[in-house]
Amino acid sequence: MKNEHDDTIAQTAAQLVVQEGLEYRDAKRQAIKRLGLGARTALPSNALVEMAVREYIELFCAEEQAEQLLHLRRLARQWMGRLREFRPHLSGAVWRGTASEHSDIYLQLFCEDPKSAEIELINQGLRYQVTRVRGFKGEDVDALSLNVQSTALSRYVGVHLMIYDLDDIRGALKADPQMGSLRGDEQALLRLLE
């Protein structure tokens, strides 16, 4: 059920998502602050924010956003190829098609041994940071974060690798009734790139 502020919060959050690359949860919280609403104000759904993001892109930056999205998807494809043995799935704005020049890439890796992806990064001579983040089932998971140079975007892009157990892949493939598929494997990304 929508509350009286949902549309305004969603529109403000959409601007923050596109212009600053914030994730939906952070953008909604920032929107509440910017609008001077109380901290207990109910947040709009992600589906409503997603719709507002798509409207914002269409109105203000459709052409350049399409080019930026293409570059981010190509970069994601390169990393999925490098990490193929860990069954990478692309998620977030780059997967959904709402990424802008400020967006990061989120790959979910499904590993038999949770440390194997970290060992692979070390073997490739890559520097990364480890943090704990909330996973798609609400549990805490390790995230390995790297900064990768993108010549096409003339900036460093954050690439975040969320580490899951191999068994978690079954639950990952379920679609959200409101937002559709929340992630896709390398073949699904290739279809988007075509």
Give structural notes.
The protein is of the alpha+beta class and 194 residues long. The protein has 2 domains: 6-60, no CATH class; 63-193, Beta Polymerase, domain 2. It contains 8 helices and 6 strands. It has helices at 6-20, 24-34, 46-60, 62-82, 92-96, 116-123, 169-172, 186-193; strands spanning 89-91, 105-111, 129-134, 140-150, 155-165, 183-184. It has a 6-stranded mixed sheet with strand order 3-4-5-2-1-6. The protein is globular and about 50 Å long. The N and C termini lie far apart (38 Å). The model has no long low-confidence stretch (mean pLDDT 92).
Percentage of residues in DSSP E strands: 15-25%
Fourth-tier CATH superfamily name of the largest domain: Beta Polymerase, domain 2
Number of strands: 6
Going by CATH, the architecture of the largest domain would be: 2-Layer Sandwich
- The rough form would be described as globular
Write the H/E string, N to C. HHHHEHEHEEEHEH
What is the distance, rounded to the nearest whole angstrom, between the alpha carbons of the first and last residues? Answer: 38 Å
How many domains? The number is: 2
Mean pLDDT: 92
Structural class: alpha+beta
The largest β sheet comes out as: 6 strands, mixed
| CATH class group of the largest domain | Alpha Beta
Cα-atom radius of gyration: 17 Å
Provide the spatial order of strands within the biggest beta sheet: 3-4-5-2-1-6
